[in-house]
Amino acid sequence: MLLEAVYHRPRLNWSYAYDYETIHLRLRAKKGDLTEVFAWAGDKYAWDTTKELIPMKLFTSDAMFDYWECESVPLYRRLKYGFLLQKGHERIWMTESDFQTERPANPNRLFEFPYINRGDVFTPPAWVKDAVFYQIFPERFANGDASLNPDNVQPWGGTPTPENFFGGDLQGVIDHLDHLTELGINGIYFTPIFAGTTNHKYDTEDYMKVDPHFGDVETLKKLVDACHERGIRVLLDAVFNHSGRTFAPFLDVLEHGENSRYKDWFHVREFPLQVVDNIPNYDAFSFEPHMPKLNTENPEVKEYLLKVAEYWIKEVGIDGWRLDVANEVDHGFWREFRKVVKSANPEAYILGEIWHESAPWLEGDKFDAVMNYPFTDAVLDFFVNSSLDAEGFANAIGKQLSRYPLQASEVAFNLLDSHDTPRLLTLAGGDKKKFKQAVLFQFTFMGTPCIYYGDEFGMDGENDPGCRKCMEWDPEKQDHDLFSFYRKLIEIRGNHPALRSGSFTFLEAGRDGSKLAFERSLGDEVIIVLMNTEETAQTFRLDVEERDWQDLFTGDSLRAERGKLTIKLPAYGYTAVKAIL
């Protein structure tokens, strides 16, 4: 037993309240090392009458470690606990301070979960688990009101550049809501809609004003109301890490320097403000002079931005915020942001843009979720780039699941491309077989999937600005097969709670393998998804209960014989089957 690999600590993703009654415990060990693990748990004030051994299950693995998990529903909402580790006949007890060969005589040196305080329980909005998001870049989605066009507007469908405009606006979105409803969308994430000088609007000029090229507050209200009537939630983009160069307080600093009352709204290293060798002498997003970083520890800045966050929820009824460059803003600001937003709408979804491991932001006091780029990387590396085999992919997904409490994984924002990346079809080299398998995993995995506008019609595009093309509305140029594929996936996901809220387990993901199978289950509902990423046909033989199964794509019936479900898939084939009770 390699005790050096065994790890647990209270809180974070290792010991946390899943809800107001339930505590989840996790323990890490060397991969394949332990045969059984138990949590030894009870109430610290009534140990002798409440102590019990709770079996832990192997809930996920990565390349180096196994992760064991159990849940406890303590009678008095508090828990003392240790662990019993077994490897064959070898037994070791783990306390907070050491490992012992004998059962500890008393619980004094065990770990402790002091109390499930309701205010500490991380409770993301439940509706997100049922959501399918659609990301819209407003300037490129649809031109619905030509009277709002910029002076230099170009014909729709031209070649995008970092500077040009095509006239997309909010009325254009309203005009095409039928398309989103037909597809099955019930959530929209908009990149910024507030006043700015660029086509992307990440250089905010006025946080309290809809960009005049997009419309006005009345148009936004009309859009949000129309979405809500269709059961579509609306997420707006907040750029609170930095403003734009034309933001009035920054213009004042540019003009008055050290004498500006707004000088402490920004991080200025010296006056006057200037750019030398392409690097400004004030902090900015990257080194972009037109995106000066805001000082969110400044009380006036904090008050202003928190009013912005509250205003748009109350004024137009938006359902949450996506937060740009979220990991570069101080944690104290985000804690206050959460309190303000959740007071305005307890069901609001708070989504942070973070491209890496994000546990410090997912403890229940800041964000509900982050844009799950580690998921994106793993899916692309396996299905598209072929740089991971099935085992490597399972390890990458396992590592990701181990990092966060379950409720964070259940509402993770799972994307495959965005306005910041090449489009999925381009990454796949135009190969629709690879494209479909990546999307199938996205829609059958834990978390909420997001479609980047136009992917459902087979739009392609390299990195920015190529990924920001005008939406293709010409039916002759749309890929209707992909549209039908997405619609079917959304239908399947919507009809089966196990795909939205169920547990996740890999059934087959071997080394050097190209066969992938995994199970989603919730109560009596069991669904198995199978994918063959090989250029030749392959046969799956899975250990299952001996019962009938139904193909969710074709409706065909299958029968498990002698505890084996045998399914042959063609090259790059896929299916999902449901157990029939």
From TrEMBL:
Species this protein is from: Paenibacillus auburnensis
Protein name: Cyclomaltodextrinase
EC code(s) of this entry: 3.2.1.54
UniProt GO MF annotations: cyclomaltodextrinase activity
InterPro entries: GH, GH13_cat_dom, Glyco_hydro_13_lg-like_dom, Glyco_hydro_b, Ig-like_fold, Malt_amylase-like_C, O16G_dom_2
Domain Glycosyl hydrolase family 13 catalytic: 135-493
Matching CDD domains: AmyAc_CMD, E_set_CDase_PDE_N
Similarity comment: Belongs to the glycosyl hydrolase 13 family.
Keyword Protease: no
